[in-house]
Amino acid sequence: MQVRAHGVGVDAPPGWEVRITRRSGEEHAPGARVRPVLHAATVPLPAVRGDFGGGVTASLGAGDLFVSLFEHDPAACSTALFATRGLPRPQVSDFAPEQLQRTIAGQSGAQWFFQHAGRAFCLYVVLGSHARRVEMLPRLRAVLASLVVEAGVES
Question: For residues 12 and 94, what is the distance between their CA atoms, to the nearest angstrom?
Fold first, then answer.
């Protein structure tokens, strides 16, 4: 099933849940644009969750994955942090327990900052098991291969 909103989208394989939302403006300075965040996971996504998996990652089992695609302001494309162009292609060596936003025993994570289609993003991935990262990587890559980012979308 394909899920699209706010100029981003992904195909949700069986067993995955995908949601694309924008936070309410209350978390931001007055007049700030609220950018989208795409969440995909092999566990149910709670209605209330953090941008980078708060409320989700603690429920990951050893075979589960969580993906967050968080959009930043387009002006960030001109910064060194977002200099990498194009969608990331995760490698097994990218993942480490030390890469997690919140350390959970046994889990592994990775994070990429990049720009694509004139839009700045952070891709953050949590694997339910660092030990099983080699077998989990093809499932992650399949989801990321279906990722669509449209140019010129104002959120």
Answer: 23
Give dist(CA 37, CA 17) in Å, integer.
14
Nearest to 17 by CA among 48, 46, 49: 46
Among candidate residues 153, 119, 140, 147, the one with its CA nearest the CA of residue 65:
140
Strand partners, 110: 125
pTM across the whole model: 0.92
* Degrees, nearest 5: CA angle 51-55-58: 120
What string of pLDDT tens digits covers the 155 residues of the chain?
889 999 999 999 999 999 999 865 555 555 556 789 999 999 999 999 999 999 999 999 999 999 999 999 999 999 999 999 999 999 999 999 999 988 999 999 999 999 999 999 999 999 999 999 999 999 999 999 999 999 977 65
- Name every residue whose Cβ is closer than 8 Å to that of residue 12 and which is 6 or more positions away in sequence: 1, 2, 3, 18, 40, 143
